[in-house]
Amino acid sequence: MRNIIYLLTILLICSCDGPVARKPVSTSTPKIIKSTVERNKDLLALEVQIIYGLVSKDTSHTYLNTKTGSWYYYETKNDTLNYLPKGEDIVTMTYNIMTLTNDTIYSAKEIGVQQINVDKPSLFKGLRNNFTLLKENEKATFIYPSSLAFGYHGDDNRIAPNTPIKSSVEILKIEKK
Predict the structure, then answer these.
(1) How many CA atoms lie within 13 A of 109 on its CB side?
(2) SS3 of 116, please?
């Protein structure tokens, strides 16, 4: 009897190898990620084509490209000043949001006068990147593809998902810090 207990104990100890890692039941789906990236590229290309068509037909304005992928023209240019907002400056500004066909989505009056810290802007992506291109007392109209506007989500109110927009921005004052 004693030999059987020793034998069972030895078999029990030898048969325990320790934990064995399990293989994952499912793997990540790079196909979904790749298809989403391709869809976004196609959408951006279509929006850029539409915006480029609008820009080329508008002969009354001279459009400039930004480094971030938007276009703009000056409504009011201030050649007397050279200072652009930077660092910890506080910018007092107004802006509106329109469709590409100039229908107002949010008026400047509705949004109100904004005081924005240059380092910590609380604006949508495109405007956050571009309001520092303007000097005090300048006004410009920017055109943004949806990826620089409110993206695939919209604003949960008046701006639908994947909507390119226009925005007229006016810099009222720059407080240098």
Answers:
(1) 1
(2) strand
CA atoms of 151 and 160, how far apart (whole Å): 9
Class of the CATH-defined domain 36-175:
alpha beta
Under DSSP, is residue 20 helix (H, G, I), strand (E, B) or coil?
coil
Contacts of 149 (CB under 8 A, 6+ apart): 124, 125, 126, 159, 163, 164, 165
Residues with Cβ < 8 Å from 60, sequence gap 6 or more?
A: none
**For residue 45, pLDDT beyond 80:** yes
- For the cut 90, the answer to whether the pLDDT of residue 2 exceeds it is no
**Predicted confidence (pLDDT) per residue in 64-121, tens digit:** 999 999 999 999 999 999 999 998 999 999 999 999 999 999 999 999 999 999 988 8
CA-CA-CA-CA dihedral for 148, 115, 141, 78, to nearest 10: -140
Helix (H) or strand (E) holding 125, with range, is: helix 125-130
Q: Structural domain boundaries of the chain?
A: 36-175
Question: pTM of the full predicted structure?
Answer: 0.80
